Amino acid sequence: MVAEELDERGRPVPHPAADEATTLLGFLDYQRATLAWKCRGLDRAGLQATVGTSTITLGGLLKHMALVEDDWFTRDLLDRPWPDPWPQVDWEDDPDWEWNSAADDPPERLWALWERAVERSRAAVVGAMAEGGLDVLAKRPWPDEAQPPSLRWILVHMIEEYARHNGHADLIRESVDGLTGE
């Protein structure tokens, strides 16, 4: 096995000539590591900072991405119940609970929530790859779709989700302490 190459910020560099699964997983881990880099080293105030009229915070991004990880990989791909804290949330009362409640959480709790969700997602992908690879379909039925998405589709969607939010993270982090880059 070849050792994983890391860039100057500690992010795994996707191999430029890998197979499809390795490429997709490499880019997803790169995007995850980019969010971690943008949030690393900040205290509660830094994780609660906003830019302009937006209410998006880095702490909210960590909590939102924990939800997104659990939603796509645990709930949809595996058709398993959401892990805590998601089942206890009154989503009808506050559909943006993960964003709105992040300010109440200390940094350690936000990091742990996100890191555990990523670990569960990685384990779900390993199982799906062993079951049939990128063509494995999500087990949770979609009420308005004829066919659930494949693992391939979920991975591409997650790369897009992280990349879009990492753009938000860039702006927020720069406003906190001037950290810039990618």
From TrEMBL:
- A Pfam family found in this protein is MST
Q: Which Gene3D superfamilies match?
A: dinb family like domain (1.20.120.450)
Q: Which domain of life is it from?
A: Bacteria
Question: What name has this protein been given in UniProt?
Answer: Mini-circle protein
Organism for this UniProt entry: Pseudonocardia thermophila
